[in-house]
Amino acid sequence: MSANGSPSGKQPTATYDSAFLKACRREPVPHTPVWFMRQAGRSLPEYRKVREGVGMLDSCMRPDLVTEITLQPVRRHGVDAAIYFSDIVVPLKAIGVDLDIKPGVGPVVQNPIRTRADLAQLRDLTPEDVPYVTEAIGLLTAELGATPLIGFAGAPFTLASYLVEGGPSRTYENAKAMMYGDPELWSDLLDRLADITSAFLKVQIEAGASAVQLFDSWAGALAPVDYRRSVLPASAKVFRAVESYGVPRIHFGVGTGELLGLMGEAGADVVGVDWRVPLDEAARRVGPGKALQGNLDPTVLFAPQSAVEAKTREVLDAAANLEGHVFNLGHGVMPSTDPDALTRLVEYVHAHTVR
Predict the structure, then answer these.
(1) Radius of gyration of the chain from Cα atoms?
(2) CA-to-CA distance for 260 and 256, rounded, in angstroms?
(3) Residue 106, exposed/middle/buried by CB under 10 A (0-12, 13-18, 19+)?
(4) Helix 173-181 × helix 183-207 angle, to 10°
(5) What are phi and psi of 159, to 5 degrees?
(6) Which of 93, 102, 256, 340 is paired with 128 by a 20 to 30 Å CA distance?
(7) pLDDT tens profile 193-252
(8) Contacts of 16 (CB under 8 A, 6+ apart)
(9) Residue of 16, 42, 188, 276 marked catalytic
(10) What are the backbone dihedrals phi and psi of residue 256, each rounded to the nearest 5 degrees, phi first?
């Protein structure tokens, strides 16, 4: 495939001329495209209904449920892209890591990785490990038509942090202790995770995903010097692994204002920005040749509509001179968000930016 996302020597795919993919390629768009991280999830009553009695990991492995949940925000909000419903630990579960997603806690790993012997938990991932992903994306692309589907995966650092800590953490003391104290083991762990992540993204792209996003949710806990030395090589390996497919590659982390340039350097075509850094300043930090994604504070949606529109205009004004802009929140949709506020936000961005 060519680097612009169109299959080499073939007619453009149904999604090629979508506003979302045009923005990712830094081409002129009819309006600023919008999608939301966690747009398919707990903020939607229809999501809560179909998930009743079904565990999170189980729901990620049922193509019928994945398809329905992924489509829900497209139907309700009219967003410009769908994002595949899954969880960043799904590929780890698929290769046999003993973990579960506990309500109110998050992913919990039964046997954390603390020694070289523990690396044996991490074998290569093959398409046969995740047949439900291929099936679900086939169902989704048939339903979505010209609406792009974004595939995603967790970045090696964030996955490693869960595996080493054994679950969510605020301090990452075990992960950082390995990173600083046994850099060779740390490097081998991230390299193995980069291979697993690359394989998981390849499955999604080959099944029909039009773009991919690498979530490095916890990277904001790192100083730039540590990110460059101990994390960037593994993330760059993932981006290189999928480069030949020609689909846009998005890179996002929370609290990563000091890392934006490095995250772009890792190989992303689009750099996601949280709400802490204005997009015009983010563009200066990232440098030329990249589109940006973001970055309304998710809590703004709890304010009156007039305030939401005022803050949205601030984001759009800061993005006015960007090479490419995909409107999003600066983090995921909060569970108690009014779904109608999201629908109104999509309508406002589309109307305010129509070319």
Answers:
(1) 19
(2) 6
(3) middle
(4) 110
(5) -65, -45
(6) 102
(7) 999 999 999 999 999 999 999 999 999 999 999 999 999 999 999 999 999 999 999 999
(8) 5, 6
(9) 42
(10) -105, 25
